């Protein structure tokens, strides 16, 4: 029997809808409204770079224009509706999902203990009890509050002293919980003082099979269609072998089916989906025509290869690329219009002057940059300016570049 096929435009519509980018940006951005959005996305990646605004704030602002950074801070630190841990990177995750992180705690405990003996500072395991006792006696701490007499190596920001390494290990393995950040520095407390007792490690029995099932289901809910490898990578807890087995079992039970999804170049790719994937396609919102600035870490772009296959958009962040070797710039923001990624913009907030400076914009090859597009861009940059607390937008001379 021939497999169900999705044309590229339909595939993009489904994918964007799952990532809350199809509808016109609007809606509540505080409390339960904000939590609902984060649950829809699954998690929001945290990142320290603040060229215009931090990545997590840009991700939420691009979907809810009334959003401000204090809204996430209150939801996380005051309301305890979110917890911070690791997916493919540091992220805030709905507290409702905490029970499913016990498998991650256990796997990180085993993995990091072996990895960090060589990669991190020697002796971090000997600091576990000291760090835990210090927090028990003095309350939440940051890395600057412990290990004050320990020597930090010269290997850069990643060369932690033993007590800092112990803090990170105890957090990643579940004994500690991050309760917030000051600036961008994490503050750690004992998990038993933050998380409901019945959910704490040691109290809740970790059912690996049930967790894998939940994680794969939750990943597919947010991707719409995927390979087993993409399901494994979504939360980065499930192994490739576990995801492959889960998909095989889903096919056998009828919970999943294989579909062929058209890439932007017309190639068909065989992926897993639920049988009802195409139900209700007529109800999907038509993509908004307004231009939106996306974070380089937006969920839509997290899987760079997937973004290239579906949208024809090749994106690599160049933060760690030496300036002379950069193709575009240090921190370049993708631009979304309708269901197309139309270009990328190099801009920076100069907060001491109250100016958002646009250095350059490169349209994609198939995009003709019209006066109407410039007006739509001006409207979006004015929204970003206000979000970043700036007064004006300035464009460099010859800011509009030829496609590369």
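^ Assign residues to that structure.
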């Amino acid at each position: 029997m021939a497999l169900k096929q999705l044309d590229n435009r339909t595939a993009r519509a489904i994918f964007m809808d799952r990532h809350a980018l199809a509808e016109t940006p609007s809606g509540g951005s505080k409390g339960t409204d904000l939590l609902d959005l984060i649950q829809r996305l699954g998690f929001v990646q945290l990142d320290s770079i603040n060229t215009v605004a931090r990545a997590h704030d840009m991700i939420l602002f691009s979907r809810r224009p009334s959003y401000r950074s204090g809204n996430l801070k209150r939801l996380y630190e005051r309301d305890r509706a979110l917890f911070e841990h690791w997916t493919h990177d540091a992220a805030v995750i709905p507290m409702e999902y905490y029970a499913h992180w016990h498998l991650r705690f256990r796997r990180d405990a085993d993995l990091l203990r072996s990895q960090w003996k060589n990669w991190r500072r020697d002796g971090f395991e000997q600091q576990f009890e000291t760090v835990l006792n210090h927090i028990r006696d003095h309350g939440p701490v940051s890395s600057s509050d412990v290990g004050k007499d320990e020597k930090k190596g010269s290997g850069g920001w990643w060369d932690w002293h033993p007590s800092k390494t112990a803090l990170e290990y105890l957090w990643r393995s579940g004994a500690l919980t991050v309760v917030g950040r000051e600036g961008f520095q994490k503050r750690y407390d004992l998990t038993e003082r933050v998380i409901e007792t019945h959910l704490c490690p040691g109290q809740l029995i970790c059912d690996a099979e049930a967790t894998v099932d939940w994680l794969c289901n939750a990943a597919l809910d947010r991707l719409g269609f995927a390979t087993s490898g993409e399901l494994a990578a979504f939360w980065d807890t499930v192994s490739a072998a576990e995801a492959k087995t889960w998909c095989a079992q889903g096919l056998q039970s009828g919970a999943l089916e294989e579909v062929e999804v058209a890439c932007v170049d017309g190639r068909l790719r065989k992926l897993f989906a639920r049988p009802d994937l195409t139900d209700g396609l007529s109800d999907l919102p038509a993509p908004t025509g307004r231009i939106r600035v996306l974070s380089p870490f937006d969920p839509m772009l997290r899987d760079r290869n997937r973004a290239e296959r579906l949208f024809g958009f090749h994106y690599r962040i160049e933060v760690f690329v030496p300036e002379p070797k950069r193709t575009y710039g240090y921190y370049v923001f993708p631009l979304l219009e309708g269901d197309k990624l139309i270009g990328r913009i190099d801009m920076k907030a100069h907060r001491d002057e109250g100016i958002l400076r646009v250095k350059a914009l490169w349209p994609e090859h198939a995009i003709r940059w019209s006066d109407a597009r410039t007006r739509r861009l001006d409207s979006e940059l004015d929204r970003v300016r206000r979000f970043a607390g700036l007064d004006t937008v300035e464009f460099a001379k010859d800011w509009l570049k030829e496609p590369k």
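The chain has a mean pLDDT of 93.
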